[in-house]
Specification:
- One of its GO terms (cellular component) is plasma membrane.
- This protein is an all-alpha fold and 558 residues long.
- It folds into 3 domains: 20-227 and 532-558, Growth Hormone, Chain: A, CATH 1.20.1250.20; 231-287; 295-527, Growth Hormone, Chain: A (Up-down Bundle).
- The protein has 23 helices and 4 strands.
- Strands 1-2 form a two-stranded antiparallel ribbon. A two-stranded antiparallel sheet has the order 3-4.
- Helix 3 packs across helix 9 (162-190).
- The longest helix is centred in the last third of the chain and has 34 residues, at 426-459.
Length: 558
């Protein structure tokens, strides 16, 4: 167990300004997590997280119908239609976290508005450029929502209790991600625009509730002082470098081959820029870092960020490629593949909530992380033995094992990171945690897609129909699985195609085992610390500004 003195060795940490029990008691009294305002705000945040996750997963399933309206799609169009949302979503999180510290949590209202505006633009578009623009704006809002929902929950709830509430938020996100493709398939048959309009009511509810019931009090700065506090150089380096890396990853093997200068150059510049960003943040020239070096100074927090990345990657890996198994190997429809993954989601939701509740009661986050990653490794290993003849009971149980592992691990990571650091950095920590997860979500699709495509091409010679092999040239085996099976195939050819998918998917799951095992090994680097009762009390519910009984903490009135 790490002692409290070892935590205090983190450099440049300002001490807490709460110096006596009277102030702590008054802070406790200001925020009543059991009040009806709390539950109204919390439920609206969960609804918002669900809507953002839903919109992040709809486009692949809706793409064929969207393309009929927007016109023929080139390889460039396809890359940006499918990836623009997550690119914008990922690059903004640490910069928005800094804006939250400067301008207060009212930034949440801006991100909700951006998300709603982007949804409207995408849904109302009549050409590819407008659609991509809408998805970028929507992604910017979603990235802010993704981080701010966690941040607001951390503000409202003491550290020991955060796990159970974050578990509910994560469950909402996972449910939205899973439901997205099914919603897209069903709504596309009616009107594909509804796929993007469906999130507008949730955005409206969250915006109204946040405006009226999330009384945000912060020390207002003059515009000149506020602008001086923004890490302009660091944020520019971060956004440019991560965007460059993600553009290279999204385009590689689709628009240009991987050995093309048009792919290698952005990847190289992006990695170099990312290194330069961290060097600058740790240098004396950066006076207001958006990602302070001190948040990596604790071994627990450093390992926690890596675990967040791996957990999100394996989660996305599973969410996206279980449907490919059912469509490509079991030859089911997209809707039925969604139905077949219900056992996974039915277990993921309660396991995340249960892990949070038990962690809040006993503080056993390190144990849950190790057990969770072990079950992930076992679960994806079991998925690798599935074939076209696997019984329903078999693939149901295998899904349950993976879901329990992911639920146990995911819920406990952010509280563990925050336990190792002072609450003054809660926004920076949450922003970096959100970025690590978002990067994991991106690579959790891209890496297995590359693996599946590579082994699909390697084994496509097993398909005896030469004409079909020609049609499959350039087809993306992950995104186009439904397109392939919608062709007029004989029973023999369909069996050959499912065999190719079966062999290719087994390799996808085997490589996922390696990442889960890596998470299991490094989870032992997380030290067991006591979950304290500290708050980061920037947000108050249902109160007016300037309360005469309030106290000040890190520039905020509570």
């Amino acid at each position: 167990m790490e002692s409290s003195s070892s935590i205090k060795e983190i450099p440049h940490m300002p001490p807490s300004r709460f110096s006596d029990d009277a102030q702590d008691s008054r802070v406790e009294a200001q925020i009543d997590k059991h009040s009806w305002q709390f539950w109204l705000v919390f439920c609206s945040l969960c609804l918002l997280a669900f809507a953002a996750a839903l919109e992040g997963s709809v486009v692949t399933a809706a793409l064929p119908t969207v393309a009929q309206t927007l016109g023929p799609e080139s390889s460039v169009d396809r890359v940006w239609i499918t990836n623009s949302f997550m690119l914008a979503h990922t690059v903004v999180q640490p910069p928005i976290a800094q804006l939250c510290d400067i301008f207060g949590r009212r930034t949440l209202l801006v991100t909700i508005a951006l998300f709603a505006i982007g949804s409207g633009i995408a849904g109302g578009s009549n050409d590819t450029a407008t659609f991509i623009t809408g998805r970028i704006v929507q992604g910017l809002g979603s990235g802010g929502i993704y981080m701010l929902v966690d941040l607001v929950v951390c503000d409202l709830v003491p550290l020991r209790d955060r796990g159970k509430y974050l578990g509910i938020v994560l469950s909402s996100t996972a449910f939205g991600t899973t439901l997205g493709p099914m919603v897209a398939v069903e709504l596309a048959d009616v009107n594909w625009r509804l796929t993007f309009y469906v999130s507008l009511p949730a955005s409206g509810v969250a915006l109204v509730v946040s405006w009226f019931f999330l009384d945000i009090t912060y020390e207002k700065l003059g515009w000149r002082e506020a602008l001086r506090k923004i890490d302009w150089i660091g944020n520019t380096l971060f956004i440019a470098s991560i965007a460059s890396i993600l553009c290279g990853l999204a385009s590689g093997g689709i628009i240009n081959p991987w050995n093309s200068n048009r792919i290698l150059l952005p990847l190289t510049l992006g990695v170099a820029g990312w290194i330069a960003f961290h060097l600058f943040e740790a240098s004396p020239w950066c006076h207001e870092p958006s990602v302070p070096y001190r948040i990596f100074a604790s071994r627990t927090s450093f390992v926690g960020f890596i675990l967040a990345f791996i957990a999100a990657m394996v989660l996305q890996w599973t969410l996206n490629f279980l449907p490919v198994y059912f469509q490509g190997v079991k030859a089911t429809s997209p809707l039925m593949s969604g139905v077949n993954t219900l056992p996974y989601n039915a277990m993921l939701v309660p396991s995340t909530i249960l892990a949070g509740i038990v962690m809040s009661k006993f503080g056993a986050y390190s144990l849950f992380q190790s057990v969770g990653f072990a079950l992930m490794a076992i679960g994806v290993g079991l998925l690798s033995i599935l074939d076209s003849d696997s019984h329903t009971a078999l693939w149901t149980v295998f899904q349950l094992v993976v879901a329990v592992g992911q639920g146990l691990a995911a819920t406990t990571i952010l509280p563990a990171i925050q336990t190792a650091l002072y609450s003054l950095d809660v926004a920076s920590v949450t922003g970096m945690y959100a970025f690590a997860r978002s990067l994991g979500l991106v690579l959790g699709v891209r890496i297995p897609t590359l693996i599946l495509d590579a082994f699909f091409v390697k084994n496509v010679h097993h398909i005896s129909n030469a004409e079909l092999r020609g049609k499959l040239d350039g087809v993306i085996s992950y995104a186009d699985v439904n397109k392939i099976f919608s062709m007029d195939l004989s029973a023999k050819t369909k069996l050959e195609v499912t065999s190719v998918y079966e062999v290719s998917l087994q390799m996808v799951w085997r490589i996922a085992i390696a990442f889960a095992v890596l998470g299991f090994i490094i989870s032992f680097g997380v030290r067991r610390l006591d979950l304290g009762e500290e708050r980061s009390p920037e947000i108050r519910l249902g109160e007016k500004h300037g309360n005469e009984n309030s106290v000040r903490y890190n520039g905020y009135e509570v």
